[in-house]
Task: structure prediction
Amino acid sequence: MTDDLISSEIPYATLTPDHVLDAIESLGYQCDGRVLALNSYENRVYQIGLEDHSPIVAKFYRPGRWALDTILEEHDFAAELVEFDIPVVKPIEKNQTTLFNFEEFQFSIYDRKLGHAPELDQFSHLKQLGRLLARLHAVGSRYRFVHRHTLSSQLLGFDAKEVILKQNLLPNYLQESYENLSTNLLQLIENQFSLFDNLPFFRIHGDFHLGNVLTRDNIFWIVDLDDCCNGPAIQDLWMLLSGEKHEREAQLSELVNGYNEFYDFDQSQLALVESLRTLRILNYAAWLSRRWNDPAFQMNFPWFNTPRYWEEHIQSLQEQLYVLQNGEEILQLH
Result:
């Protein structure tokens, strides 16, 4: 990862609609002038209308975030998954590459897939998602990424804490609470992870929430491998769960029933779910802090960096501290 600890630049200031169209036409396409910005903040993603061709999707990578080898390793993983008939939307290759340069931007292009997010109240969707993840993990477990990061409490926790404190966005009256809470939480997480020294880490999606899966006519497509990394299998399952504990356990059972058809699920990993959730809470706040000078973030996350936001963040961390200290939320398969 090449992203600076704290980014102060405005990375997409020059990426106008005309600039986007010029980039696509530099590959030999004839655009019809239609540019639709899609829901993406870390990168910029657009649906581009073409003459005599169905629209394509273009992803413009955030400058400075990933090294070249890191991006290409993501693309190679997508291509490998497709070779094993796993429905992943992979980058289109042109001129023997999948990563293109236009002025200061690197970008990739994709076929457009239509669909909507799966529905967690449909257990058939959960079972199908379990099968899909198991097949992805069966391929991912063949070896590890070389250039992409490995999930760790250092990357998602300690580094996140450092960002929050260096940005000086926390109100003064919450500073001590945040420092004490994050320190105690990270110690508990480190202790928990130490119990899993032999846990297999392999190539996973890394950000497998419902927004990164499309379904239509009972066909599922995996999208956005931008956060793929080396990590434990449970990281790709727990984000699909929501609601009260009994609801999450029912959802988990359907996921695992499907998962076990193609790959064996290690139930001991369930003990890591709340540690992983805590790391995500810490890292999400740090992500918003890192990007706060990007006008798109100030426009789309207006509630961030207010006293209320930080008070609720502290409250979430307090709740996680209670959960980790008491172990009451460890999920069980029924």
